[in-house]
C-alpha cells in the first residue's frame, strides 16, 4: 500500500500541530493523526524542558553566555573547552566557571530519550549499527544542554 507523502510535522510549531490535528481527516489519514500526536508529545516535552531551564536562570547563571558581558560563548569554543575549572571570556576577559545543572540534565534527557527511540535507533539499525551507540550521543547532547557558565564563586 502506498501512502501519500506526509507533511513534515517535525517543522511544525505546537500551535500548527494542534491546528493540523483539528483539521486532518482522521478517517482518510490515520497515520497522519498518529504522526501529529507523536510530534506534539515531543514538542510539548521540549517546551516544558526549555521553560524549566529558563526559570532556573539567574543573572549569575547563563546558558552559553558570558556571565559578565552576556555575549555568547560557543560550547565548542576554545574558551569553553580550555583546561581547568575557571575559563576566560574571549570577549571581555572576565573569568567564569562551567557547572553542570543536574536538574536541567534530567529534564533534557526525557525528550532526548524519546527522540532517541523514535529517530536514532531506526537510523542506527538501518546502518547496521547497534542502537546502543545512540544513547551516548543522547547523553552527550543532554550534558551539553545542561552546562551553565557562572561567575567564579570567590567573586
Ligand atoms: Zn565576557
From TrEMBL:
Superkingdom to which the source organism belongs: Bacteria
Keyword terms of this UniProt record: Membrane, Transmembrane, Transmembrane helix
Regions that span the bilayer: 102-125, 131-149
Protein name, entry field: Uncharacterized protein
Organism: Pseudoalteromonas ruthenica
Lineage: Bacteria, Pseudomonadati, Pseudomonadota, Gammaproteobacteria, Alteromonadales
Amino acid at each position: 500500500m502506498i501512502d501519500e507523502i506526509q507533511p513534515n510535522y517535525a517543522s511544525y510549531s505546537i500551535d500548527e500541530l494542534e491546528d493540523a490535528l483539528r483539521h486532518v481527516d482522521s478517517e482518510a489519514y490515520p497515520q497522519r493523526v498518529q504522526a501529529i500526536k507523536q510530534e506534539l508529545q515531543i514538542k510539548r516535552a521540549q517546551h516544558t524542558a526549555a521553560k524549566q531551564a529558563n526559570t532556573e536562570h539567574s543573572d549569575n547563571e547563563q546558558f552559553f553566555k558570558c556571565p559578565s558581558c552576556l555575549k555568547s560563548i560557543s560550547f565548542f569554543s576554545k574558551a569553553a573547552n580550555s583546561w581547568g575549572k575557571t575559563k576566560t571570556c574571549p570577549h571581555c576577559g572576565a573569568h567564569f566557571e562551567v557547572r553542570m545543572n543536574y536538574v536541567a540534565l534530567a529534564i533534557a534527557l526525557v525528550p532526548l530519550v524519546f527522540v532517541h527511540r523514535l529517530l536514532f535507533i531506526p537510523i542506527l539499525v538501518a546502518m547496521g549499527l547497534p542502537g546502543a551507540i545512540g544513547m551516548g550521543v543522547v547523553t552527550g547532547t543532554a550534558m551539553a544542554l545542561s552546562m551553565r557558565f557562572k561567575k567564579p564563586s570567590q567573586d
